[in-house]
Amino acid sequence: MDTTLRHEDRPVAAGIPASAAADGAARAAAGADACALDARADLALEGMTCAACATRIEKVLNRIDGVEAAVNFATETATVHYDRSRADVDALVAAIARAGYGARSKIDDGAERELESSRREAAWREMRRDLAISVALTAPLLLQMAAMLIPGLRAGHEDLLPRWLQFALATPVQFAIGRRFYVGAWHALRGGGANMDVLIALGTTIAWTFSAVVTVLGLHQHVYFEASAAIITLVLLGKALEARAKARTSAALEGLLRLQPPIAHVERGDAIVDVPLADVKVGDRYLVRAGEAVPVDGVVVDGASLVDESMLTGESLPVAKAPATKVYAGTANHDGFLRCRATGVGSATLLAGIVRLVGEAQGTKAPIQKLADRISGVFVPVVVVIAALTFVLAWWLVGDPTVALVNAVSVLVIACPCALGLATPTAIIVGTGRGAQLGVLIRNAVALENAGRLTTLVVDKTGTVTAGVPAVTSVRPCAATASDEVLAVAAALEKNARHPLAQAIVARARDDGLALPAVEGFTSVPGKGTRGAVGADKRAALAGSLQFLVDEGIAVDPRAVDALHMSSDSVVAVAIDGALAGVITLADRVRATSASAIARLSTHGVDVVMMSGDNPATVAAIAAEVGIRDHRGAMTPAAKAQAIRDLQAAGRVVGMVGDGVNDAPALAAADVSFAIGAGSAIAIEAADVTVVRDDLGAVVDAILLSRATRSKIRQNLFFAFAYNVLGIPLAALGLLNPVIAGAAMAMSSVSVVSNALLLRRFRPNR
Predict the structure, then answer these.
(1) Where residue 175 falls among pLDDT bands split at 50, 70, 90?
(2) For the chain, what are the domain ranges?
C-alpha cells in the first residue's frame, strides 16, 4: 500500500495525553503541595445569603491543612481539592458547620437533582408565603407614609395610624418575617464573620427599637416603623426575585437533562420491554420509534431515519442515520425506525459528560472575580464602620440624633455585597449553559474568560481544517484501460486492508456500484503495496506506491512520477499483466465550513496560523484553499509547542485547535486549547473547550460567546461597584430615605442577574 499519505506526525509526548500534560503544568506552577491534592469533593451549601458568606466559607476551608477550595455563591456549591492523608469530607463539612453554615456531599445523579429541586421549591413556597404576609402587614404603614405627598395630610401623616397599631403591624414583620436575617447574622457572627444579614438586622433593629422606645414612653418624636418593615419586605422581595432569576440561569443545563427519556424499549429475548434507563446495560439492543428521543448512546444495527442532534451540536439540520452510525442519548428521532446497540449508558453517555462538564465549569471562578472576592471579604465590617462614623458626624454637624440615626440606617441597608458576588458567577453560569446548547463545552471559567482575549489561533490540519479521512479525488487510467477497471482491481486487492487509503478506495468503488473481481494468491508487502491474481482469467495485478511498481519491474514514466509527487495528493498505482494500468489519487478533503470559519476569525481580529507535521507542499495547498496566509509544515509536536511559546513571548494570546489527545505539548502550551469532534469522550476530558460538532466554525462561536460573557461580567462589575460607590455616600449625606435605600439594595442583585440572563439570547453571527 502506498505510504505517501500525509499523516500528521502527532504522537503523544511520552505517552501523556493533553489533559495530563496540562494538569501537570498547572500543578507544577501551583507548587509542590498541589501535587498532594489527590481527592475532590463537591459540596452543596446551605445558609448563604450574600457574597460575604461565600468568602467566609472559602476562607474557613482554605485554612484547613491540605485543602484548596473555591465557593460559588450563585450555585451555592463548594469545589474542594484535598489531600486524603490530611483531610476528609467529614472534616470539611464540620468546618463549614462551625462557620455557621450547612454542607453536604453533592451527588451527581437524577435522585439528587430531584431532591435538590424539591428543596428549592419548598424554600420558594416558604419565601412566597412570608413575602405575602409581610406585604399585607407593611402596606398600611407605606400608605400612611404616602400620605405625606398629599398637601392636606402632610403635617400629621405619621399619626394617621395610631402608634400602637404601627407597633403591632411592624413587630411581626421585624421578628417573625425577619427572623431569617437574625439567624443568618447570628451564624455569621458566631463563625467570626459578617454578612449582609448583619447589615439588615442591625439597620432594621435600630429603626424598630428607636420607634418602640418612642411609642412606649410617649415621646414626641417621629417613629420609623414603616422604614424597618418596608426594608425587610423589600429585601425579601429582592431575594425572591433573585432566587427565581438565579434558577433561570441554569435553565439551559436543566433543559439538557430533560431531553433524555425515562425509559428505553429494550429487547429481552423475543419481547420488547420498557425498562428504566438505570437498567440498560452496554450491549443491550433497544428500539427508537418515530418521534421518540434516543435513551442511551448506541450504534444503529437496523433501520434508517433522520435524527435531530441540535441539542448536542447547535445545528438545526437533522443527521441521517443508517446501520453502523452512532446515535446519542437525548437526540430526537424524526420519522424513521431505529434498532440500536447500547454503547454508553448512565454517566458514560455523551449527554452525561456534557452535563458533568458544564456543571463543573459553572462552579469555577474567572480571574476577573478575584477583586470582587477581596472586597466582599471586608465589605460588611467597612460598611458598619462607615455607618457608625455617619451617625457620629451627622449628630455633631446637624445636632439632631434622629437625623443621624436615619442616615446611619440608610447606610446599613443600601450597602449590598451580593451584587459584587453575583456579577461574575451568574454570567459564567448562563454563558456555559448557552455554550452547551450551541455544542460548545467549556471546561472552566478561566478558559471562558481567556477565549475572548485570543489574538492568534493555531490550527492543526488533519481533522481540524480537513476532515481527517482520505477520499479518492481522481482515477487516471492509462490507454486501453477503463477507469472503472482500474478502481475495481485496486479495491479488490485492498478490500481486506485497514489502511485509510485502502478503505477510501474500497468506499469509492462501493459508492460507484462496481462489482469487485475475485482475488487469488493475495500477498501484502508492508509499507509498499499488495499483489494477487484477479478475475476469472487470473490476471497478475499490483496496487501500491509508484516506487513499489518500479521495484516490481513495471515501466513507469519518470516525468509522470515527478508530476504526481509535486501535487498534494497521495497516489496509489495499479498494474495489470505487467503494465501500468492507471493511478488513483487521494487526498484529505477540506471541511466545507473551514474557509468560512477562517474568514470569520479574520473579521473578528483573530490571526490564524496552520501548523502541521505534514509536508510543506500539502500544508501550503490546504492553506491556500481556506485562506490561511501563515502556515508551517513538517513540524514535530515539540516544534509546535515552541512556536506557540514564541508567539506568546511576542505578546499574543494564543489558542490551539487539535484533536484533544495528540499534540499534547502544543495544547498544554496554549492559553486556551480547543478540541473538535462529536462524541469523543477523550477529547472532552482533554481540552479547555470542546466543540461537539466537526466544524471549525464552532471554535469561532466559542470565542464570540466568551467575548459576550466577558462583556456581561464587566457590565455587572461596573454596576455593582458604581452602585455601592455612589449609594453609600448619598445615604451617609442623608439624601436617601431608608425605605428607598432598602428598595435600591433589593433591586441591585436582581439587576445584575437579569443582565447576565441576556446571554441566553446570544446568537453567533455566521
Answers:
(1) very high
(2) 37-106, 123-251+359-429+709-761, 261-347, 440-466+591-707, 468-588
pLDDT tens for residues 417-448?
Answer: 777 777 888 888 888 888 888 888 888 788 88
Q: Determine the residue type at 286.
A: Y
For the chain, what percent of residues have pLDDT higher than 90? 23
C-alpha Rg value of the chain to the nearest Å: 34
- What residue has cell string 441576556? 758
Answer yes or no: CATH 2.60.120.10 is held by domain 261-347. Answer: no
Is it the case that residue 364 has pLDDT exceeding 70? no
Q: Where are the alpha helices (DSSP H) in 176-224?
A: 179-190, 196-217
Strands (E), 252-382: 263-268, 271-276, 285-288, 297-308, 319-321, 326-327, 332-333, 337-344
Q: Which residues contact 103 (CB under 8 A, 6 or more apart)?
A: 43, 44, 45, 46, 78, 92, 93, 96, 97
State which CATH number among 3.40.50.10860, 3.40.50.150, 3.40.1110.10, 3.30.390.50 fits the domain covering 468-588: 3.40.1110.10
Task: Spell out the residues 6+ positions from residue 44 whose beta carbon is closer than 8 angstroms to its own.
Answer: 76, 77, 103, 104, 105, 106, 116
Residue 127: left if φ>0, alpha if ψ -120 to 50, beta else—which one?
alpha
Average pLDDT over residues 221-239: 80
Q: Which residues of 582-618 are buried (b: 16+ CB within 10 A; e: fewer)?
A: bbbbbbbbbbebbbbbbebbeeeebbbbbbbbbeeeb
**Dihedral sign for Cα atoms in the order 583, 587, 589, 590:** negative
Cell 447589615 found at? 199
Residues in the chain: 766
Residue 110: pLDDT above 60?
A: no
Q: Which of 130, 284, 373, 460 is catalytic?
A: 460
Average pLDDT, the chain: 80
What pTM was estimated for this model as a whole? 0.69
Is 37-106 CATH 3.50.50.60? no
How far, in Å, CA of 584 to CA of 487, rounded?
A: 8
| pLDDT confidence tier of residue 501, bands split at 50, 70 and 90 | confident
Residues near 441 by beta carbon (within 8 Å), at least 6 away in sequence? 354, 357, 358, 435, 684, 689, 690, 691, 692
Topology of the domain covering 440-466+591-707 = Rossmann fold (3.40.50)
- Which pLDDT does position 33 carry in this prediction? 43
Nearest Cα residue to 569 out of 584, 587, 582, 588: 587
Interatomic CA distance for residues 184 and 154, integer angstroms? 38
Active site residue 460: yes
